[in-house]
């Protein structure tokens, strides 16, 4: 896939929006030769997921859940995303990973998985 492809909007669900911007920005920078991804927005609440998704045009193609959410909350967030935008790619970062490995560890974690995330059907 060439980076001249249309950009894919990515949204995050993270209670620390500045950290989300930094981490996702680093991932986007690392994959820019392969994928054209734009961090199009973040919501800090589960209730904000649907309105955020509906407010972005073109609709987001990817949603990341940050690691501060429990597995149940991540499942709820991803279900809302899939119901709002059929076909959206979603990924929940394992609960507590940020605390264990820090922002650089999250970037590394996402870098190891970005191809699989982008290949989701």
Brief characterization of the structure:
The chain has 121 residues and is of the alpha/beta class. The chain has four helices and four strands; from the N terminus they run E-H-E-H-E-H-E-H.
Task: Describe this protein's structure.
- By secondary structure, the chain is an alpha/beta fold.
- It has one domain (8-119): Rossmann fold (3-Layer(aba) Sandwich), CATH 3.40.50.2300.
- It is built from 4 helices and 4 strands, in the order βαβαβαβα.
- It has helices at 17-31, 49-55, 71-84, 97-119; strands spanning 8-13, 37-43, 62-65, 89-92.
- Strands 2-1-3-4 form a 4-stranded parallel sheet, sandwiched between helices.
- Strand 3 (62-65), helix 3 and strand 4 form a beta-alpha-beta unit.
- The chain is globular and about 30 Å long.
- The protein starts with 7 loop residues before the first strand and ends with a helix.
- This is Thiamine-binding protein domain-containing protein.
Counting structural domains, the number is 1
CATH fold name? Rossmann fold
User: Rg from C-alpha positions?
Assistant: 13 Å
Report the average pLDDT across residues.
Answer: 94
SS class: alpha/beta
Report the sheet-strand fraction: 15-25%
The N- to C-terminal Cα distance equals 16 Å
In which range does the helix fraction lie? 40-55%
CATH superfamily grouping: Response regulator
Biggest sheet, open or closed, and with what strands and sense? Answer: 4 strands, parallel
CATH architecture: 3-Layer(aba) Sandwich
